[in-house]
Amino acid sequence: MRDNMTDSFEWMVKEHGKAIFNYIFSLVRQKELSEDLYQEVLVSAYLAFHTIKEPARLRSWLFTIARNKCKDYWRKENKTKQFWKEEVYSYSATVEAPPLPEEEFLHKDSVRKMAESVKTLPEIYQSAIFLYYFKDLTLLEISTKSNIPISTVKTRMKRGKEHLRPKLQAFAQ
């Protein structure tokens, strides 16, 4: 047995669904992503549908939900991109010729100094940085090994890098 709210919601989707999808697509320009965001909009709209007081504002209400879902996506995407762009240090190694003995010594010395700097960090940051940069574990592997959520690993990496940055800049000078 169907209730009036379900019928009203279905009518709303039939009436405004295509316009909402086209609006989302115009913002993100990716079909699959638009479909995902459209589904999120419909779920949010359905869950809050009973709260709408003015049916005349239904269309603008749906567009607001769609715009906010897109903003949430972009905000999340920008945080992810910014996190991955951060670097604690960078260097370039030549593949063509083997390193000179003095270069190898300097490299080992800088790695040793970096390891010493990492050891000065608080333990919660130290382990994430050490596992990532010295043991070449992925964030997911660190999360699994440490039995903590991946978001916590990312936060600890970010904060550990913030603590390390001034110390490592001293090496570059």
From TrEMBL:
The keyword Transcription applies. Residues 12-79 form the RNA polymerase sigma-70 region domain. SUPFAM superfamilies: Sigma2 domain of RNA polymerase sigma factors, Sigma3 and sigma4 domains of RNA polymerase sigma factors. InterPro entries: RNA_pol_sigma-70-like, RNA_pol_sigma-70_dom, RNA_pol_sigma70_r2, RNA_pol_sigma70_r4_t2, RNA_pol_sigma_r2, RNA_pol_sigma_r3/r4-like, WH-like_DNA-bd_sf. Keywords: Sigma factor, Transcription, Transcription regulation. It holds the Pfam family Sigma70_r4_2. Residues 116-164 form the RNA polymerase sigma factor 70 region 4 type domain. Gene3D superfamilies: 1.10.1740.10, Winged helix-like DNA-binding domain superfamily/Winged helix DNA-binding domain. Belongs to the sigma-70 factor family. ECF subfamily. NCBIfam families: sigma70-ECF (TIGR02937). This is RNA polymerase sigma factor. It comes from Neobacillus driksii.
